[in-house]
Design brief:
Number of helices: 1
Pfam families: DUF948
Keywords: Membrane, Transmembrane, Transmembrane helix
Order of helices and strands: H
Organism: Oceanobacillus luteolus
Shape: rod-shaped
Protein name: DUF948 domain-containing protein
Distance between the termini: 193 Å
InterPro entries: UPF0478 (IPR009293)
Structural class: mainly alpha
Amino acid sequence: MEIMLYIAIIIAVIALVVLTVYTINTLKVTKDFLNETKTTLQGLETQVKGITTETTQLLNKTNRLADDVELKSRKMDGLLDGAKGIGETMKEFDRSLNQLSNSIARASSEDREKTNEAVKWGASILEFVMKRNKQK
């Protein structure tokens, strides 16, 4: 019976050694997996930092672009106001030209009547002078 006790102890020791070996192998595999996971997470952290930096730069550019668009919009408002003023000035100029043209037309028709009278008087005087010269 003692032998059975020794055999049982030997089997228990062998089982304990096998269990220890498998546990060590499992822990090594787990350690390698955790190292790979750590490396992956570090790479992911680096990429997230890069994305954060790029996002910040993009946001800054967008803000500068929005400020530039707002500034140009204000300048455009001034330009459009100026164009509106030019349009009103052109209308006023056109109105003045029409008035001037009408004044010239009226004056020329009045002058035409006076000119026609002057020509008639001149022709009459010339005819009178010619008749007088013939009588002498």
